[in-house]
Specification:
By secondary structure, this protein is α+β, with helices and mostly antiparallel strands. The chain has a single domain, classed as Arc Repressor Mutant, subunit A. The chain is 31% helix and 22% strand. The protein has three helices and five strands. A three-stranded antiparallel sheet has the order 1-2-3. Strand 2 and strand 3 form a beta hairpin. The radius of gyration is 12 Å and the shape is globular. The chain starts with a helix and ends in an 8-residue tail after the last helix. Belongs to the UPF0386 family.
Length: 85
């Protein structure tokens, strides 16, 4: 499946144990997202539009109001990189 460089970067961080934290507006819609690596560093590439694309393709999922994590389908789309081969 074709995914952009930014989508690939975010999925790679999530595959290594990162998470996407989100904030909701009073009406329930998500208004801001931030992607954290497993070491706690903030990834600037994760925007709200990129988050929506990953969620629409079912590459990420949240259970019970917890931060978003990568799904099995998202793991299948991540290309191998030097630090996880």
């Amino acid at each position: 499946m074709n995914i952009s460089k930014h989508e690939q970067r975010v999925l790679h961080v999530l595959a290594q144990g990162g998470a996407i934290h989100f904030e909701r507006m009073p009406n329930g819609k998500i208004n801001s997202v931030s992607c954290y690596t497993r070491q706690g560093h903030l990834l600037d590439d994760c925007t709200l539009s990129l988050f929506d694309r990953l969620k629409k393709r079912r590459f990420i999922k949240s259970k019970g109001g917890r931060p978003y994590r990568v799904t099995q389908q998202g793991l299948a789309c991540v290309r191998a990189q030097l630090d996880n081969r």
